[in-house]
Design a protein that fits this description.
186 residues; alpha+beta; GMP Synthetase, Chain A, domain 3; 2 domains; 6-stranded antiparallel sheet; 19% helix; 34% strand
Length: 186
Amino acid sequence: MPAEHTAGRPDSVGWTVPCGEILVVGPDETALPAGEAGELWIRGPMVVPGYWDNPEATRQSFTRGYWRSGDVGSVDAQGFVRVFDRLKDMVNRGGYKVYSVEVENVLGHHPAVLESAIVGKPCPVLGERVHAFVTLKRPVSEDELTRFCGERLADYKVPESFTLLDEPLPRNANGKLMKRALREIV
């Protein structure tokens, strides 16, 4: 991100490097127009040609010379890239896309919340519903968290259920949040 553009575009990670290319694609693997959200595919000399000694992972992750990042994002008409979420972390609630990071950021502003993680809770009607795992600094009700989110998010993004914790969320040895473990218990 060029320094002179940082303040005006705080939601962007900047431009693609000159030797690289980012393609935004839809579920049918066709390129999307500027500003549309889809999976970010990346190619250029900085991208490895495949996974070492793992042809199956290479086949799944590389298409037409692009590495399928697994990130949902967009590139606007000026070439600024935005990254919204990981595809696997996005909740599909009745056809509406809920980016977990957006909801987690809102919850993070509540004074009683230490950390949170949003996952999709299976639903036979909507496909998924928004569920929040929240580690608390102090006691707070689910109703208070729902109200707080409802004042800041579209109604379909507001968590419909919570797991309130007084211990940290599960992380791996590198400190990365383990959402897969959370999905298994919701």
